[in-house]
Amino acid sequence: MNEKTHSEYYTGVILLVIAAITYSTMGLFTKGVAAGSWEIIFWRGIFAIAFTSAWITARGTLRQNFLGMGYPGWTVGVVGALGTAAFIPAFKLTSIANVSLIYAVSPLIAALLAWFVIGEKVTSRVMAGCVCALMGVAIIVSGSIGHISLTGDLLALWMTTAMATIMVIYRKYPNTPGAGPAVLQSVLLLPFAAMLGNPFAVDPTEIYILAAFALLFAIASVALAEGAKRVPSGQTALLSSLETPLAPVFAFLLFTEIPSTATFLGGSVVLVAVLVSIKKASGAAKQ
């Protein structure tokens, strides 16, 4: 690969790592407030729209992000809205560790979708990483059988599938803007959140917390979108699964949610899978 491609790849890796670290804090905000899922979705959406729109306006890319979305951007917005609608209640109904570890199956989903939809090859090293990530999930789940909410886990799987789909869309249509679709998904959810929740009854203090949530979510969404354009789909999902071992640690520090031995072991397997994938891609980028 030439120097420009090499630089683009590493820029993508950095953006995806930033997104993964930021996403790993999402469960803390969701469980840290008494507001219900639809109330959180409403206020997170309001502030996410404001922050993201201000950012792209300051950059002078407002027109590009909204009028240049095209069909892929609208698809990302709809799929993202469906994922967010599952993402928030999943944290309310099951543990932060379980949501994060279920998300770790996204490498397999993204790699298979990319192979089936856009014919993207999956190297043996990346596929091995996918299998390892799946094994890590199995290890953690084995230590939680009988103690988890099936509804919460299914919602987490729904969110995982939506995120994997978005990664593949950005890989196939790399010119699709990241900020516009992120705003669109929040806009699409606002009327549902207003009808199904009671957002104006939320404590003002919690609204400030949700504003911070929205800011971080906006940063993560844009970083994920921009990173996914520069890195193969399977590896994008693997890098994103870095949040799997990080989220339980943050949950322990803030809520004293103590991860089981299986969670620590499974998280380590996922981390190894990510590092193996990065090593392979790094070698390819240098050639």
Number of helical stretches of at least 4 residues: 14
Oligomer: single chain
Shape: globular
* Stretches with pLDDT under 50, minimum 5 residues: 281-287
Give the strand tally. Answer: 0
Radius of gyration: 18 Å
Helix content: over 70%
Supply the helix-strand structural class. Answer: mainly alpha
Q: What is the terminal separation in angstroms?
A: 6 Å
Number of domains: 1
Note the main sheet. none
Q: Whole-number average pLDDT? A: 81
Q: How much of the polypeptide forms β-strand, as a percent range?
A: under 5%
The H-and-E topology, N to C, reads as: HHHHHHHHHHHHHH
Keywords:
globular; single chain; mainly alpha; 287 residues; 81% helix
Please give a structural write-up:
By secondary structure, this protein is mainly α. The chain has one domain.
Q: What's this model, at a glance?
A:
The chain has 14 helices and no strands. With 287 residues, it is mainly α.
